[in-house]
């Protein structure tokens, strides 16, 4: 099985420890534990050029750890507990004193795969917590439960429990014979072209969503829709579900305005990608890049 960037793979999430308050307290104060600070959805790094993660010291920074708004048990790996601590309560000055907080989008591709995956996991949960402070049923405040993996309404009559959400999105490589459809959205980095993608709507199967999105965006009817693989994409809360699909026609029509331009390309054209403002492939850490490279190598 291929490992996708930002997927935690065989990392042990230790769900059975999430209600074990005594064990959690002891691990938070254990010098062997790894504590990842998150500040306003950013991560603490050593240097912006070649980033290295900076962790909190469970002993020396105990006061700071006690101020964390949300403490999330990520899991236990090789006997070592990993936690994410949301320190967004710190003002900018206090955060700067700890060091440099960077966006995962920028540093992700430069990090070791496991570090990138743990930050994606931490970021995804921190984002969810920030947006679920109030109960969607009665409007009362909610509180953190299950070591950061649930929130519960504080109104005792309501007591609704919420679980972290991930939004499924399909991403699909459309081919016609020996050519692949490469499209571009106006908001993307200059020259970047990629495969098509879109969110799954209620009542759809993933295959339904692939067929609908392709038709909405480029007016093509596709067949032979096949699952390819999936990747967490916490920008902010997606799970990208990769598919391949075939079209019998190259006559596309940019219908909904989301796609600025599109073109059919051969393998040779992709292999000779200039990687500049006229044409560049998607980011190296993305499933879209994987879908394209997999086809080039076929
Ligand atoms: Zn409620």
Which hetero ligands occur in this complex? zinc ion
SS class: alpha+beta
**CA gyration radius, whole angstroms:** 22 Å
Q: How do the SSEs run, as a string of H and E? A: HEEHEEHEHHEEEEEEHEEEHH
Label this structure with key terms.
298 residues; five-stranded mixed beta sheet; alpha+beta; single chain; six-stranded mixed beta sheet; 23% helix; globular; binds zinc ion
Q: How would you describe the overall organization of this protein?
A:
The chain is an alpha+beta fold. A hairpin with a 7-residue loop joins strand 7 and strand 8. It has helices spanning 21-28, 62-66, 92-98, 104-107, 113-130, 206-218, 267-271, 287-296, and strands at residues 34-39, 42-45, 70-77, 80-86, 100-103, 142-145, 150-153, 161-162, 167-176, 179-184, 196-199, 222-233, 238-247, 261-265. Strands 9, 10, 11, 12, 13 and 14 form a 6-stranded mixed beta sheet that branches. Bound molecules: zinc ion. Residues 135, 137-138, 140, 153, 155, 158, 160 line the site of zinc ion (ZN).
């Amino acid at each position: 099985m291929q490992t996708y960037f930002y997927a935690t793979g065989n990392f042990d999430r230790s769900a059975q420890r999430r209600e074990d308050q005594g064990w959690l307290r002891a691990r938070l104060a254990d010098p062997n534990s790894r504590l990842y600070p998150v500040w306003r959805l950013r991560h603490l790094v050593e240097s912006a050029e070649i980033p290295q993660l900076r962790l909190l010291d469970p002993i020396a920074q105990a006061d700071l750890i006690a101020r964390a708004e949300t403490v999330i048990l990520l899991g236990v790996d090789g006997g070592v507990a990993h936690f994410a601590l949301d320190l967004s309560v710190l003002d900018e000055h206090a955060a700067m004193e700890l060091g440099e907080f960077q966006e995962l989008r920028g540093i992700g591709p430069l990090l070791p795969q496991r570090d990138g995956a743990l930050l994606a996991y931490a970021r995804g949960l921190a984002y969810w917590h920030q947006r679920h402070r109030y109960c969607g049923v009665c409007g009362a405040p909610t509180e953190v439960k299950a070591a950061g993996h649930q929130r519960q309404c504080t109104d005792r009559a309501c007591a609704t429990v919420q679980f972290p959400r991930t939004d499924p999105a399909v991403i699909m490589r459309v081919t016609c014979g020996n050519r692949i459809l490469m499209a571009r959205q106006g908001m993307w980095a200059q020259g970047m072209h990629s495969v098509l993608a879109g969110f799954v709507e209620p009542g759809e199967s993933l295959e339904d969503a692939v067929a609908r999105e392709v038709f909405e965006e480029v007016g093509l009817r596709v067949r032979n829709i096949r699952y390819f693989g999936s990747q967490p994409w916490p920008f902010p809360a997606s799970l990208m579900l990769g598919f391949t699909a075939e079209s019998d026609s190259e006559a596309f029509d940019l219908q909904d305005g989301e796609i600025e331009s599109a073109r059919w390309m051969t393998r040779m054209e992709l292999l000779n990608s200039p990687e500049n403002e006229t044409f560049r492939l998607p980011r190296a850490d993305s499933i879209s890049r994987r879908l394209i490279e997999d086809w080039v190598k076929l």
